[in-house]
Design goal:
Elements: H1 3-11, E1 40-41, E2 53-55, E3 61-63, E4 87-98, E5 101-113, E6 117-128, E7 135-140, E8 143-148, H2 157-162, E9 165-168, E10 187-188, E11 197-200, E12 207-208, E13 217-220, E14 228-229, E15 236-237, E16 240-242, E17 246-251, E18 262-264, E19 268-270, E20 282-289, E21 297-302, E22 307-311, E23 321-328, E24 335-345, E25 352-361, E26 377-383, E27 386-392, E28 403-407, E29 410-412, H3 413-419, E30 421-427, E31 433-442, E32 445-457, E33 462-468, H4 471-476, E34 480-491, E35 494-495, E36 499-506
Parallel strand pairs: 19-25, 29-36
Antiparallel strand pairs: 1-2, 2-3, 3-17, 4-5, 4-17, 5-6, 6-9, 7-8, 7-13, 10-12, 11-17, 13-16, 14-15, 18-20, 20-23, 21-24, 22-23, 24-25, 26-27, 28-30, 30-33, 31-32, 31-34, 34-35, 34-36
């Protein structure tokens, strides 16, 4: 079997429920029960949430192999997302063939994920060319197992998955895997294995490690030569046999100290567009500690002074999180903004994390010039037979200010949905842009941020009509009091004084 095929087979894992071979009660201690085939599990967790290593009764410890050329099947990173969602402490297999008949048996101690991290031992058989729907017995280094072929004499896919022998698989409980039948670990005979490894994961080789001394596999059953033992020599023949294994495992080095590990709820924050004079909303990102010691944030900074960041001032306990709150405080210059939030901490995996920030200023604020004792100018207009007041900011520039602003004083929700909100006004020569904003009102005055804004292009001076409609408008205008503000100008950055008109939305 080629290296690519073996690696692909090791990585291929159907998304089916783990079939536990026995109901086990996990011990709270990291040492295994007396009958376990593994003797200990490291209390130190990696960034993936899995234990650093497992130890067998001989004292051999294997660490989880990730991004290691010495482990050909190791993923570049272990994460809860395919295709890098599994890694191995031991990855061992043996293939026996006789013509078209073939059996491969795997003996793996694996790290993977359900909703959270899990570890388990797995013995799995793959058959080709055997008699359909028949049971076969496999004698192997860790005992005897039985598997049944499908209608084609194969053992593959879901049928194979349903016959796996698996022990462990409890989320965040890594002691149950110590009861696996796998153990002690298999390793090449002699001293020919690459230093620091139990094998090279590629070359078939004789092994040691079986607790019974059966460092081989033998498959017996229908259609195979009968298994016989020579009474004189004790030699066993028959079935499908192999004593060569491909073995992959990294001998554990020094155990790393417990660490804090950090993760972010998002890697980007976007702020809604606004005018320069409007207050900005804040945005937050959660910083989570998935490690075993408190996470300390050393600094928060933004690459632009138009953004500020605060929060996470106290250490974050393992399993907890804190919020970093970001505000966009820029108040000048029309256009888009982009910056980076930098978070420095004691996290072993990501000591320097970043979040992309984006914001936009759509226009300047109202051109309001306050003059002492400037009287308020009242313009009277007729709207559906009623008189309404439009107030102009005292002393504000009115070079291109609109006039004769008119719309219905009262409009129903149903009319908004069917006809929209119709507004008319007079524009002066030179007007190119009209900005309309609607605010909730209390006692005739606007409150809060605009609930609806639109910027229109004016094509000529004189009478200008606009119909505001759409889902955004109908969602924003609920029954209640509102104020419409209208500004005009040669561009969005040079708007005139504000004209206001109060109206009511009814049911």
């Amino acid at each position: 079997m080629s290296r690519n095929t073996r690696t692909r087979n090791a990585r291929r894992r159907l998304r089916v429920a783990l079939t536990t071979a026995a109901t086990l009660t996990a011990a709270a201690a990291i040492a295994g029960p007396a009958h376990a085939n593994l003797s200990a599990v490291s209390p130190v967790l990696l960034v993936s949430g899995h234990p650093f290593s497992y130890t067998d009764p001989s004292g051999l410890s294997l660490e989880l192999c990730i991004n290691d050329p010495g482990c050909p099947a190791s993923p570049p990173v272990l994460e809860n997302k395919a295709p890098n969602d599994e890694a191995f402490y031991q990855l061992a297999s043996s293939t026996a063939t006789d013509g078209a008949k073939e059996a491969t048996i795997d003996f793996n101690l694996e790290a993977a994920f359900l909703a959270g991290p899990i570890t388990f031992g797995r013995i799995q058989a793959t058959f080709h060319g055997l008699v359909p729907n028949q049971e076969y017995e496999v004698t192997h280094p860790y005992g005897v197992s039985h598997f049944t072929t499908d209608d084609n004499g194969e053992l593959l896919g879901r049928i194979r998955a349903g016959q796996r022998e698996e022990i462990g698989g409890a989320e965040n409980d890594f002691t149950t895997a110590m009861n696996t039948t796998i153990g002690p670990f298999l390793r090449w005979t002699g001293d020919t294995a690459p230093p620091g490894y139990t094998g090279d994961g590629v070359t078939p080789h004789t092994v040691v490690g079986s607790p019974t001394g059966t460092n081989s596999i033998r498959v017996s059953g229908p259609g195979l030569p009968p298994v016989q033992t020579d009474p004189a020599t004790g030699e066993v023949t028959g079935g499908l046999f192999s004593d060569l294994f491909t073995v992959e495992g990294k001998i554990a080095g020094a155990t790393p100290p417990p660490s804090a590990f950090s993760s972010l709820s998002t890697t980007s924050l976007a702020f809604p567009p606004r005018r320069a004079d409007e207050a900005s909303v804040t945005r937050s990102v959660a910083l989570r500690n998935t490690g075993q010691v408190p996470l300390t944030v050393n600094s928060l900074s933004a690459s632009s002074g138009e953004f500020t960041a605060s929060g996470c001032s106290a250490p974050v306990a393992p399993g907890s999180s804190c919020l970093v709150t970001v505000a966009f405080v820029g108040n000048s210059g029309v256009g888009d903004r982009a910056a980076t939030l930098n978070i420095a901490s004691n996290a072993a995996n990501n000591p320097n994390m970043s979040v992309a920030l984006s914001a936009s200023i759509t226009g300047a604020g109202p051109q309001v010039i306050t003059q002492p004792a400037a009287p308020t100018v009242i313009q009277q207009v007729k709207v559906l037979g009623a008189t309404a007041s439009q107030r102009v900011q005292p002393g504000a520039s009115s070079a291109l200010a609109v006039s004769r602003l008119s719309l219905a004083r009262r409009v129903s929700v149903s009319r908004l949905r069917t006809q929209g909100l119709r507004v008319s006004m007079r524009l002066k020569a030179g007007t190119k842009t009209v900005r309309i904003a609607i605010y909730r009102a209390r006692n005739g005055k606007k409150t809060g941020r605009a609930v609806f804004t639109t910027t229109r292009t004016a094509r000529a001076a004189g009478l200008y009509r606009a119909t505001l409609r759409g889902r955004t408008l109908t969602r924003a205008l609920k029954p209640g009091a509102y104020v419409m503000e209208v500004q005009a100008g040669r561009s969005a950055s040079s708007l005139s004084a504000v004209r206001r008109f109060a109206f009511t939305v009814t049911r």
